[in-house]
Amino acid sequence: MSSPGTVYIIKVGGNVIDNPAFLDSFLKDFAAVPALKVLIHGGGKIATRIGDKLGIAANYVNGRRITDAETIDVVTMVYGGLVNKQVVAKLQANGCNAIGLTGADANIIPAVKRPVKEIDYGFVGDIPEGSVQTAPVKLLLDAGITPVLAPLTHDGKGQILNTNADTIASSLAVALSAHYTVRLIYCFEKKGVLRNAEDDESVINLINRDIYRQLLADGALSDGILPKLDNAFAAIESGVKEVLIGHAGDLQRNTTGSVAGTLIC
Amino acid sequence: MSSPGTVYIIKVGGNVIDNPAFLDSFLKDFAAVPALKVLIHGGGKIATRIGDKLGIAANYVNGRRITDAETIDVVTMVYGGLVNKQVVAKLQANGCNAIGLTGADANIIPAVKRPVKEIDYGFVGDIPEGSVQTAPVKLLLDAGITPVLAPLTHDGKGQILNTNADTIASSLAVALSAHYTVRLIYCFEKKGVLRNAEDDESVINLINRDIYRQLLADGALSDGILPKLDNAFAAIESGVKEVLIGHAGDLQRNTTGSVAGTLIC
Fold first, then answer.
1. Distance between CA atoms of residues B116 and B164, nearest Å
2. pLDDT digits (tens, 9 = 90+) for A218-263
3. B56 → chain A, closest CA residue
4. Which residues hold substrate (chains A, B) (predicted)?
5. Parallel, antiparallel, or unpaired for β B206-207 and A242-247?
6. What is the DSSP letter of B92?
7. Does residue A42 contact residue A13 with C-beta atoms inside 8 Å?
8. Which residues pair with A10 in a beta bridge?
9. Does A47 contact B at CB distance below 8 Å?
10. DSSP code string of chain A
11. CB A100 within 8 A of CB B104
């Protein structure tokens, strides 16, 4: 049992969302986490599949996906509706009193539409420092209600924005660390940060700033993990007690005292 | 200004949701209602349009729409995601601290999948008497947060269910009347209950049980309004202070002391 005042901020990636059996087993473990907790879910490929069926072509500039007006509607439907509410209904079935939200709900995450420089990313929201509103999250947590956040924010002027789920997780973790001991766990389909992307067993158990610098110098890390690590260090430096990157199937161990995966400190 | 302890339960119909300019003006008025309030929105035709684009044909038996497995996913996306979150973002822009929910969220409305008799309605949820959980709604209202409910419930076993928005509104109104003075307002595109469906000015200003019986005997009422009136009388008889059926454009008058539309008592 965690000490009182601990909140787990748990982010689960799109590859878990896309796999129904994996997701069900993850949600069962999440429901059983013996502490206050928040779930942030990624979107998965279902938005792309539904967008394709609706005839909305994915739009890329320099390899970066653009969130145009049609795409923000699709992700609002799919992330904020289909995925979020199915996760909530399943958590309820597992005895976890979940409430599904976006950053627009209760104004939890006011964001800013990314300024147009070389690329116009469209309806993508960046979260300014100090922007997250902890009062509604605290209200729910302290009432025994578990927030489940979709990767969406808003601009305060009526527009929903697409925001990276890892960033939402770290921003929320930092904001809540003013009120709780916060442990941030990134759950995905790998066992942790790998020294060799081809070898699933090459998990690095601990990364601090020095080790990170060395890994970057060695070119050992895959591109995909770098934003996660940057988010993790930013969180640690802003008051988050602990960041873990690990397999979604290891959530139970990672919330009951042991560590499976990569600990960032 | 309403007396303390008053909550307005305001339902807005699908025809308003489908008309962006009408919806914007309604949401501005809703945001300005000078009391605690809850919004319940219908779905509108957008779910049908998106279902058509996705190749999901509407399925009718004896003229009643069936919510099959594909359809419940579409309405979960569209009502619970697109419509609900756009309404929330717009209310936030109007200074109303809205939170968008379904009946699955915080377990507000546990429902029962409609039993199969002559017709299998599919994933349609009926709300048992006494089922609505007022604690989370009260928690939000008393914190100055305005719940916005999509017409969706859940069965507690992981399944989202499609539930009539009028029924959600009256069930919630009845449940909250244990804690507040509740005024229930059904807002739609007509000026009230009409004596003659062809004449938009033939509004009946007041309906009680006796008048209702007479109107039914005369065959004066259109079929569409009957479930609304049945819901209204059920609400009044279970503790709701007042039920009004009126035009969405008359919300401001109907929440500041005057009455435009049909008062049920």
1. 17
2. 988 887 888 889 989 999 999 999 999 999 999 999 999 889 999 9
3. A53
4. 43-44, 65, 162
5. unpaired
6. H
7. yes
8. A39, A185
9. no
10. -PPTTEEEEEEE-HHHHT-HHHHHHHHHHHHT-SSEEEEEE---THHHHHHHHTT---EEETTEEEB-HHHHHHHHHIIIIIIHHHHHHHHHHTT--EEEE-TTGGG--B-EEPPPSSS--BSBEE--TT---HHHHHHHHHTT-EEEE-SEEE-SSS-EEE--HHHHHHHHHHHHTTTSEEEEEEEESSSS-BSSTT-TT-B--EE-HHHHHHHHHHT-S-TTHHHHHHHHHHHHHTT-SEEEEEEGGGHHHHTTT---SEEE-
11. yes
- Nearest-CA neighbor of A143 among B135, B105, B36? B135
Whether A1 maps to a domain, the answer reads no
Among A55, A82, A160, beta carbon nearest to B85: A160
Residue B1 lies in a domain: no
Residue with tokens 């009256």: B170
What are the beta bridge partners of residue B213?
none
In the block, residue with structure tokens 């042991």 = A258
Range of the domain at B109: 6-264
What does the pLDDT read at residue A263?
A: 97
Cα–Cα distance, A236 to A227 (Å, whole number): 14
The pLDDT value given to residue B2: 44
Q: Is residue A249 part of a domain?
A: yes
Residue A106, domain CATH: 3.40.1160.10
Q: Is residue A97 part of a domain?
A: yes
Of B82, B100, B145, the CB nearest to A136: B145
Q: What is the per-residue pLDDT across A115-151, written as a single tens digit (0 to 9) for each? A: 999 889 999 999 999 999 999 999 999 999 999 999 9
* Closest C-alpha to A171, from A231, A227, A229: A231
Taking CB atoms and an 8 Å cutoff, what residues of chain A touch B90?
158
State the smallest CA–CA distance between residue B192 and chain A in angstroms.
30
